[in-house]
Design goal:
- By secondary structure, this protein is mainly alpha-helical.
- A hairpin with a 5-residue loop joins strand 1 and strand 2.
- It has helices spanning 2-6, 23-28, 46-58, 76-97, 113-124, 155-172, 203-256, and strands spanning 31-33, 39-41, 66-67, 70-71, 129-134, 144-149, 179-181, 190-192.
- The chain is built from seven helices and eight strands; from the N terminus they run H-H-E-E-H-E-E-H-H-E-E-H-E-E-H.
- The protein has two domains: 2-197, Jann2411-like fold (Orthogonal Bundle), CATH 1.10.3300; 202-249.
- Residues 216-235 are annotated as: Disordered.
């Protein structure tokens, strides 16, 4: 069950302190391995979405979402709107890592990249925004640029437009060239490679892949040994049969030669 905590969205954009935390990867990372061989959705309920928003606000990746001094109330309609943005983001992340394989979590049911792109552009256009500089006072946080939406707009439109714009910023940034889908068994995360040959998002995934390769080699060796043994038995049986047939033929010839 340790897998569940290891793959939570809090490390979806696992990076060193001081490096930029991409909101697009945080959002995509809410689809994760559940620790039991399946896939978990951390935005499957309005309460989970609310908790995720609060976590991102604590990390300064999302602003406060209020309208006329009223906190943003998350409901099922809001959850569906955010999930639709996430689906579009994951479709474009899958395109970004091509020709390498995308995340196995949803590769077979993502929309076409062109449709995902249209959706993000449409959502982002709902709310006018200006580019601003943000530099949290907390230690370890570097200055970042962010599109600031008008606070008087609908909080849900503001939230989804922020998510769409942040995805655009990531995909257009050089960091997106380091994007990869972890190839470890069961892992479904997207991550940023620290070097060109990196295949796994973290050491635990590398260890899991190594164990899986070792197990596969043992299975292949055992299968090969069984096949070799079976082939040897068949050859031996064939040889015995041939010898028996030759002996019978020789005996028949000998009997024919008797007076």
């Amino acid at each position: 069950m340790m897998e569940s905590s290891e793959n939570s969205s809090s490390d979806a954009a696992e990076q060193e302190v001081g490096m930029h935390r991409w909101l697009a990867l945080e959002l995509a990372g809410t689809i994760r391995h559940d620790g039991n061989g399946g896939v978990a959705d951390e935005l499957s309920t309005p309460a989970q979405l609310s908790a995720w928003i609060q976590a991102q606000q604590a990390e300064h990746t999302l602003p406060e979402l209020r309208h006329a001094d009223t906190p943003f109330a998350v409901d099922e309609y809001a959850r569906n709107a955010v999930v639709s943005v996430r689906t579009a983001v994951r479709a474009l992340l899958a395109r970004a890592v091509a020709p390498a394989a995308p995340s196995r979590a949803d590769a077979d049911r993502l929309p076409k990249a062109a449709d995902a792109l249209d959706h993000l552009n449409l959502v982002a256009a709902r709310v006018p925004a200006t580019l601003s500089l943000h530099w949290p006072t907390d230690p370890g946080h570097a200055p970042t640029t962010r599109f600031t939406e008008a606070a008087t707009t609908d909080p849900l439109d503001r939230l989804t437009s922020i998510l769409a714009r942040e995805a655009m910023l990531f995909l257009a940034d050089e960091d997106s060239r380091r994007l990869a889908a972890c190839s470890a068994p069961r892992c479904v995360r997207y991550f940023l490679k620290e070097h060109g040959r990196q295949e796994y998002c973290k050491p635990s995934c590398s260890n899991r892949a190594r164990v899986a390769r070792h197990y596969q080699r043992r299975q292949e060796a055992a299968t090969s040994e069984l096949e070799t043994g079976s082939a040897g038995e068949v050859d031996a049986a064939g040889s015995v049969g041939a010898m028996g047939a030759a002996g019978s033929a020789g005996q028949s010839v000998a009997e024919q030669g008797k007076p």
